[in-house]
From TrEMBL:
Enzyme Commission number(s): 1.17.1.9
Domain 4Fe-4S Mo/W bis-MGD-type: 271-327
Keyword line: 2Fe-2S, 4Fe-4S, Iron, Iron-sulfur, Metal-binding, Oxidoreductase, Repeat
UniProt-annotated stretches for the region Disordered: 158-188, 950-979
Gene3D superfamilies attached to this UniProt entry: 2.40.40.20, 3.10.20.740, 3.30.70.20, 3.40.50.740, ADC-like domains, Dimethylsulfoxide Reductase, domain 2
GO MF annotations in UniProt: formate dehydrogenase (NAD+) activity
Domain 4Fe-4S ferredoxin-type: 191-222, 235-264
Biased composition (Basic and acidic residues): 960-972
Domain 4Fe-4S His(Cys)3-ligated-type: 107-146
Similarity annotation: Belongs to the complex I 75 kDa subunit family.
Protein name (Swiss-Prot/TrEMBL): Formate dehydrogenase subunit alpha
The organism of origin for this protein: Paracoccus rhizosphaerae
Length: 979
């Protein structure tokens, strides 16, 4: 495949080398050697193969790849080394000082041709019709060694179903063969790729990729000698039923068409590619979108992506088909009332309709009667414009984002303790950690590419502590097991983290030198007195948390004394009434042990959606302008007033819950909602529906008629990440470019649509490219002052702060002390949630995600990922199920104080007795109809993770679900052109 790689590099900048160098890079003292007469100097430990590549000499290879350790099985890369006997494999031979290597001697060429001849003798010669034609390493290697004929006569093989032989294919049409016991049919079970054993050369790259890159250990080589073949598990397993997680690592590693994307077989070998960024989770993986013309053939993880380092998961690798799904809306639509069907109209009419309604609302009810909601799925530039729309055009601060609904306690808690509202490390840091503490996160499902890197470090010897009500896969899976699993009672995070800190302080395990040097010592002494109180001891909180005191003490000692300690946390920390308190407690724990400011340590929030960090950075909160600066500060407002040429309201605006409350009360009447489905994702669905129904103008800007659109009056069709330019900021503060792969199917990029709406309201904006929006961001936001599209093209990505002090960004924060001064220890008193269990609702519900689905499922439900998760289910412990007469697969009624729904039960001991768990990916379930309106005391982040519920047998969908589905169906009616 011929690559036309974007980025277009700055003049004089070195392009990224996309070659596979055969073996991993090493670091060490320089070693000089001669290869084919060329002198080359490489680090000690480098393989001869990689050294040859560095010298511009390509050694043939089949089993070698530079994202895996050398294997030495294919024997195609043999070389001669002066002074040594034989012809060693260059991939497994390290360089030595003064070594003289010959890669093209007559002896070497003869051996390679003979080896290749053996491979081809047991391989189908169907290259012209093979899906890998033009993109096959076996084909390339055969040409490289000069193989032009195969001397071997027909015999036993794996590719001929009739058992006739390689040279007698035409004879198969004339007579029936006896059948070939070595032949296995193609495995088509996986929805995204095929496994064709007849084309396998048993190089083991797929098996090694599954082990070393992904860490799933789903594949193996069974049999010996000629009987060797790749197996996906037990004899009855295929690639769908096995432990394979469809990350694509094996497909990418395969040098032939043995493992092949079905999209390539259907659409042909791609001819060009564009580098872009995945639009799923907060890892922010870089991908090559490989194309045929303007048709996307496949997404391949980019080896130079600094977040994913050439790896991917099932969502980013394969689940991009939603962008061309038949459900996608491509034309603007309007309606006068939500009871009417939609009418397709022109862009001008839709925008005029929306602007007229919003203006009328403000004239009647005041300028604060309308607002906006931004999305963590949109680019930084789009999000910036939406918050600018409300402040500069609507004239208020009524802007909120789904980022507040998941990670606003991170911004508040880390801002109070560290002085900055983001994680401290890059993902590479995990390679240097010794003890990992995961609390309230499920990385194998929610952030699988990072989880693969984490599992690799754990297999190398790092220790793991998991704090989670469920026994997630990271607690125990192939070759990985946590040293401690603390299955706390939902809602008791603060008590657990305080107990860990209590042990460290009372046993004198804190890093006093670091605390004196980097933190406020007086505040620490006050904190130490607080946390040392016996009421915070593991024994005292055991009854509250449900975690054995001995386990808490052992975990605390391990974290404090085990070396570099890194903390990773997720929504299981933030989505609580004490979410901000827990984040501050985690920060206290890191400062207490000196685990800040170097590789392998730090406090690392795992952001749920692709641009949660960016949505926060861009000023999407009602009280903060871009860069986390309060709107009440005159000097901050002055910066934006000068840039925007308007006066900014100093009064903080409404958060989403306040908007809904005000709508029910009759004072909030208009909403512009870009890329967010609050009816499915926000808590207390009944209240959300009531608020939306009370509004006079709801504008939904999205790809699909989502659940919120049931109550909308204007629908503006959005563009997918494949159809736009911009940037995303991932969980490690990395700003990555999003590049347009194809033209928007709806006609416009999302930032253009927001600009057109603003101009219909009289704004007069004149942006012509997102790069101009980024220029405005960098000119007004201190942490972005060094960020530009030119800089991103040159470096690939940068991590903010990126300014004159850090022109290439900041991978690790707080290296020489905290940027805002000294670290602050904050008192973290445990306050039990107001949501309590009782006789009517004796169980605690907590919610989360699953690997194959994403957020509200709007994207992944419209892909083949539904094969793995076609409905939300309720995990319940067998003891709780038996008491209620529930068996596996039964319909159950899930009821809380706010609502009820029904779904099927799955009996499992992954949850503790008294705890049940479900996901929220499918609107048919509407899991948030049972969650409450309790929220974090500081940020209003909803308490999704603690809901008192009862579970009882049911006959199927509830009356409410049936009524909801009927209403949703009516709401999605679209008048035909004839009507």
């Amino acid at each position: 495949m011929k690559d036309f790689i974007i980025p277009q590099f700055a003049p004089g900048a070195e392009p990224f080398d996309d070659r596979d160098m055969g073996t991993p890079a090493r670091s060490g003292a320089p070693v000089s050697l001669t290869i084919d007469g060329f002198e080359v100097t490489v680090p000690e430990g480098t393989s001869v193969m990689r050294a040859a590549f560095e010298a511009g000499i390509e050694v043939p290879k089949l089993c070698a790849s530079d994202n895996m350790e050398a294997f030495g099985s294919c024997r195609l890369c043999v070389v001669e080394i002066e002074g040594r006997r034989g012809t060693p494999a260059s991939c497994t031979t390290p360089v030595t000082e003064g070594m003289v290597v010959h890669t093209q001697s007559s002896k070497v060429r003869k051996i390679r041709k003979g080896v290749m001849e053996l491979y081809i003798s047991d391989h189908p010669l169907d290259c012209l019709t093979c899906a890998a034609n033009g993109d096959c390493e076996l084909q390339d290697a055969a040409g490289q060694v000069g193989l032009r004929d195969v001397r071997y006569t027909p015999g036993d093989n794996h590719f001929d179903p009739k058992g006739i032989g390689a040279r007698s294919q035409s004879e198969a049409r004339l007579r029936e063969g006896p059948g070939n016991p070595q032949y296995l049919p193609k495995d088509d079970s996986n929805p995204y790729f095929t496994y064709d054993p007849s084309k396998c050369i048993v190089c083991s790259r797929c098996v090694r990729a599954c082990e070393e890159v992904q860490g799933t250990f789903a594949l193996t080589i069974e049999g010996r000698g000629f009987d060797s073949r790749v197996s996906a598990g037990a004899g009855f397993d295929d690639f769908l039923s096995s432990d394979c997680v469809s990350c694509g690592a094996c497909v990418q590693a395969c040098p032939t068409a043995t493992l092949q994307e079905k999209s390539v077989a259907e659409l042909g070998t791609p001819t060009r590619c564009v580098i872009t960024t995945c639009a799923y989770c907060g890892v922010g993986c870089s991908f090559k979108a490989e194309m045929n013309g303007d048709q996307l053939v496949r997404m391949v993880p980019w080896r130079h992506g600094k977040a994913n380092r050439g790896h991917s998961c099932v969502k980013g690798r394969f689940a991009y088909g939603y962008a061309s799904h038949k459900d996608r809306i491509l034309n603007p639509m309007i309606r006068d009332t939500i009871d009417e069907p939609w009418r397709e109209v022109s862009w001008d009419e839709a925008l005029s309709f929306a602007a007229t309604r919003m203006k009328a609302i403000q004239q009647k009810h005041g300028r604060r009667s309308v607002g906006v909601i931004t999305s963590s799925r949109c680019t930084n530039e789009e999000t910036y414009l939406v918050q600018k729309l409300t402040r500069a055009v609507f004239g208020n601060n009524n802007t909120d984002t789904c980022a507040r609904v998941c990670h606003s306690p991170t911004g508040y808690g880390l801002g109070k303790t560290f002085g900055t509202s983001a994680g401290t490390q890059d993902f590479d840091s995990v390679e240097h950690t010794d003890v990992v503490l995961i609390i309230g996160a499920n990385p194998t499902d929610g952030h699988p590419v990072f989880a693969s890197r984490l599992k690799k470090r754990l297999r190398q010897g790092a220790k793991l502590i998991v704090v989670d009500p469920r026994r997630t896969d990271i607690v125990r899976s192939a070759h990985v097991e946590a040293a401690h699993h603390l299955p706390l009672r939902p809602g008791t995070n603060v008590a657990v983290v305080s107990a860990l800190a209590h042990v460290i302080v009372t046993e004198g395990l804190m890093d006093e030198a670091y605390i004196r040097e980097a933190c406020d010592w007086d505040e620490f002494q006050h904190y130490a007195e607080f946390i040392g109180d016996p009421r915070h001891s593991p024994e005292a909180v055991e009854g509250v948390t449900g975690v054995p005191a001995a386990e808490l003490r052992a975990a605390a000692r391990l974290f404090a004394t085990g070396g570099n300690g890194a903390i990773y946390y997720g929504l299981g920390v933030t989505e609580h009434s004490q979410g901000s308190t827990t984040v501050m407690a985690i920060a206290n724990l890191a400062m207490l042990t000196g685990n800040i400011g170097r590789p392998g340590v730090g406090v690392n929030p795992l952001r749920g959606q692709n641009n949660v960090q960016g949505a926060c950075d861009m000023g999407s909160f009602p009280h903060e302008l871009p860069g986390y600066r309060h709107v009440k500060l005159p000097d901050v407002r002055a910066i934006f007033e000068k840039a925007w040429g308007v006066e900014i309201d100093p009064e903080p605006g409404l958060r989403i819950p306040n908007m809904l409350d005000a709508a029910v009360e009759g004072t909030f009447k208009g909403l512009y909602c870009q890329g967010e489905d609050i009816l499915q994702s926000d808590p207390d669905t009944h209240h959300v529906a009531a608020g939306l129904k009370a509004m006079e103008c709801v504008i939904v800007h999205d790809l699909f008629l989502n659940e919120t659109a049931n109550y909308a009056h204007v629908f503006l069709p959005g563009s997918s990440f494949l159809e736009k330019d911009g940037t995303f900021t991932n969980a490690e503060r990395r700003i990555n470019r999003v590049r347009k792969v194809m033209q928007p199917r709806n006609g416009y990029e999302d930032w253009e649509i927001t600009q057109m709406l603003a101009n219909a309201m009289g704004a007069g904006w004149r942006y012509t490219h997102p790069a101009q929006i980024m220029e405005e961001i960098s000119s007004t936001t201190p942490s972005f002052t060094g960020v530009s599209y030119e800089r991103l093209e040159e470096l690939g990505s940068v991590q903010w702060p990126c300014d004159e002090n850090a022109p290439e960004g900041t991978p690790i924060m707080h290296v020489n002390g905290f940027q805002a001064g000294r670290g602050r220890f904050i008192i973290t008193e445990y306050v039990a949630t107001e949501e309590r269990t009782g006789p009517r609702f004796p169980l605690l519900l907590t919610t989360g995600r699953i690997l194959s689905q994403y957020n509200v499922g709007a994207q992944t439900r419209r892909t083949e990922n539904t094969v793995w998760h076609e409905e939300d289910v309720l995990e319940i412990h067998p003891h709780d199920a038996e008491v209620r007469g529930v068996t596996e697969g039964d319909w159950v009624r899930l009821a809380s104080r706010t609502g009820e729904t029904t779904l099927r039960a799955v009996l499992t001991d992954r949850v503790s007795p008294g705890v049940v768990y479900t996901t929220f990916h499918h609107p048919a379930t509407q899991a948030n109809v049972v969650t409450t309106d309790f929220s974090d005391w500081a940020t209003n982040c909803p308490e999704y993770k603690v809901t008192a519920v009862q579970v009882s047998p049911s006959n199927g969908p509830s009356d409410w679900q049936e009524r909801y589905n009927e209403q949703a169906e009516r709401s999605r009616r679209i008048l035909s052109a004839a009507e």
